[in-house]
Amino acid sequence: MVASALSTRLGAESEASKLPALQVAAEQLASTVMMGVHGRRRAGMGEEFWQYRHHRAGDEPRMIDWRRSAKSPDTRFVRELEWQTAQSVSMWVDPAASMRFASKGNPTKSERAQLLGLALAIIMLRGGERVGLTDGDTVPRAGMGQLTRVAAALSKAEIDADFSAPDARQLAAHSTAVFISDFLGDLAAIEAAVSEAASRGVRGVLIQTLDPQEEVFPFKGRTIFESITGVLRHETKRAGDLRDRYLERLAARKAALSGLASATGWQFHTHHTDQSPQLALLWAYQALGRT
Fold first, then answer.
1. Which ranges carry the DUF58 domain (predicted)?
2. Going by fewer Cβ within 10 Å, which terminus of the chain is more open, N or C?
């Protein structure tokens, strides 16, 4: 009884110790990306001027900016305002065991995914968006107070299964979603989640996070391949013979994910844990601005 209570306390303290470090790292990473107003660089209802464009058939006369048009007698210009409706953004950061893999000198895929997810949340919250997770508990909310809730949920998220898939049932219609995973599990489950989300008008991004070893398959000779949980195990004396088949299957998986994104109006990107996280964060920031 005492041992159990002590174990629970030590586990809680261990999780709590991760939280400040994750949050500090995410704050530093987020600061490297230009702080604009996330997702609002588009025409729509608002008060802030965005851009002038040429008058098009169907535009109402009241939309014409006559002062700007007077400078070019042959062209009429429309003054567009910037969209200022806050978005609801839900993130899924894969908590499965496969994400805990790391080759020497690199962070685990889970550590990188959590860092990217939280840094992206910081940027969006600062831009006035509502941010949450797809876990059913951390619902999208605005304000920087939400940051602590998201960080705490991410730091505790971990399951024993080798692979998992996002649950699209928690996504609000016409919202935005961010899925970060290695996407090496059941492809049908991933396709079902994204397709269900898209059917409700949800747009989003898929960020595939891989360890560099998973890209090059450097193994030769006698090798034992074992999943993080130990459930899956394969031993071979000629690992090098598997390389071409492995790389073909990985390429096919990426092509399927890219095709899924294209078919549903989403966007897809692959990030490696030996690369700067700033590159992936900048891509995600810009991609969400286009959704």
1. 51-253
2. N
Terminal Cα-to-Cα distance of the chain (whole angstroms): 52
For 163, the token pair is 């692979």
Q: Is 30 exposed, middle or buried (0-12, 13-18, 19+ CB in 10 A)?
A: buried
Residue at 119: amino acid letter: A
Spatial CB neighbours of 254, under 8 Å, sequence gap ≥ 6: 208, 270
Per the structure, the complete domain to which residue 54 belongs is given by 49-81
The greatest distance separating any two alpha carbons of the chain, rounded to the nearest whole angstrom, comes to 86
The more confident residue out of 228 and 116 is 116
How far, in Å, CA of 113 to CA of 8, rounded?
A: 26
* DSSP string across 14-74: HHHHHHHHHHHHHHHHHHTS----TT--SBSS-SSEEEEEE--TT--GGGB-HHHHHTSTT
With bands split at pLDDT 50, 70 and 90, how would you rate the model's confidence at 2?
Answer: very low
pLDDT in tens, 114-162: 999 999 999 999 888 899 999 888 999 998 899 999 999 998 878 888 8
Are 238 and 182 in a shared domain?
A: yes
Asked whether residue 72 falls in the same domain as residue 138, the answer is no
End position of a domain, from candidates 57, 81, 105? 81
The secondary structure of 202-231 as a DSSP string is: -EEEEEEEE-HHHHH----SSEEEE-TTSS
Which residue has tokens 């602590």?
148
Beta strands 223-226 and 233-236 are antiparallel
pTM, full prediction: 0.76
